[in-house]
Amino acid sequence: MKKNDVILIAGGHGVAGSAIQRLLLSKGYSNVLSPTHNELDLSSQEEVEALFRAHKPKYVLYTAAKMGSITYRNSHPAELLLENLLMQTNVIRCAHKFNVEKLLFMSSDFIYPEIQDRPMTEADFLSGLPSSRDFPYSLAKITGVKLCDYYREEYGDQFFTVVPCAFFGIDSSFDLERANVVASMIHRMHDAKTTNAKEFVLWGTGKPVKEFLFSDDVASACVLLMEQRSVEGLYNIGSGSGGTSIRELANTIKEVIDYRGQIVCDISKPDGIMRRVTDSSRIRALGWRPKYDLRTAIQVTYNQFQKYIQKI
Ligand SMILES: NC(=O)c1ccc[n+]([C@@H]2O[C@H](COP(=O)([O-])OP(=O)(O)OC[C@H]3O[C@@H](n4cnc5c(N)ncnc54)[C@H](OP(=O)(O)O)[C@@H]3O)[C@@H](O)[C@H]2O)c1
Questions:
Q1: Which residue, 20, 68, 249, 306, is the most exposed by fewest CB within 10 angstroms?
Q2: Is the pTM for the entire model greater than 0.90?
Q3: Of 47, 63, 222, best ligand 1 pocket probe by most atoms within 8 Å of the beta carbon
């Protein structure tokens, strides 16, 4: 990528997209396009095509997604599948039509089947069905991966996929309806601290293990891949720490926030998948390593949360 090439981040105002934009700008890329949702509705074929026609991006990173709250996801499977399919298909199709040099499609580890006894590798893709939880979202992401593969197979397009684990960062939503596990736990534990609650309740046993990354580390992996001469297929982006249990996550947040109450587990609530860990050897072989340990990442995110809470 040359420093003045036009680079489009579709979904560039989300957690990953903003981190990628900051990194690209700090590295001297001067032509980064990052329209907001209001400026460009990715589910509109006309709008996406008009943007590609007007700006002719040479490189594209797709980091958008429609997720919503759990209630929304459970009650709107058709909309969720359709919206994600429309957005990603519009962008991938235009990237081909307008001769984009390289496209990164941000998928999710939800594309993999449930493998709990070992880290999931890229070869596990489509070796089984993903969990029925959030199936419409997984299905859209699976389709995006295959569409990129097929464009490469049929036309030689350099379209590839990254598969990040759960991540969070300074642009995370702390709105409890939308927040992911880390942002939501930061918000709820901060509330427990300010109300002097004696207990903070974790759903389930606290034993499920997941990987967590800071958004800037996900961004550095994406930019590293965009700067490679040749990329193809899938690249897992995981912490490489072997995972963190929900209990450990809660303890780390407790330390950062300095919450003095007790963390208790409500074992009447379900645990969900007990272990979701990926093998990131493929991207590590290219030299990528996460820079942020979990505690530092939580500290930076908590600092941001404090600014957020002052504003509302
Ligand atoms: N966060 C994670 O833990 C995680 C883990 C694995 C994979 N992923 C994937 O990684 C990518 C980035 O995740 P993220 O957490 O950064 O997501 P995010 O913060 O929710 O950002 C997604 C962005 O997409 C935008 N968007 C949604 N619908 C749109 C539309 N119709 N037109 C234009 N923009 C639209 C959103 O705008 P509005 O907010 O205005 O709607 C938002 O800025 C996503 O593809 C996600 O599926 C995320």
A1: 306
A2: yes
A3: 63
Q: Is 69 in the pocket of ligand 1 (CB under 6 A)?
A: no
For 70-127, write each residue's pLDDT tens digit: 788 889 999 999 999 999 999 999 999 999 999 999 999 999 999 999 999 999 999 9
Q: Ligand 1 pocket test: which of 167, 184, 212, 217 has the largest number of ligand atoms within 8 Å of its C-beta?
A: 167
Structure tokens at 110: 């939800």
For residue range 236-279, list pLDDT tens digits in order. Answer: 999 998 999 999 999 999 999 999 999 999 999 988 889 999 99
Q: How deeply is 299 buried, as exposed, middle or buried, from its count of CB atoms within 10 A (0-12, 13-18, 19+)?
A: middle
Question: Which residue's CA is the nearest one to ligand 1's atom 17?
Answer: 14
- Beta carbon of 10 within 6 Å of any ligand 1 atom: no
The CATH number of 7-170+212-240+276-292 is 3.40.50.720
Q: Which one is catalytic: 112, 137, 292, 302? A: 137
Going by DSSP bridges, is the β-strand pair 209-210/244-245 parallel, antiparallel, or unpaired? Answer: antiparallel
Q: Is 29 a catalytic residue?
A: no
Give me the amino acid identity at 117: D
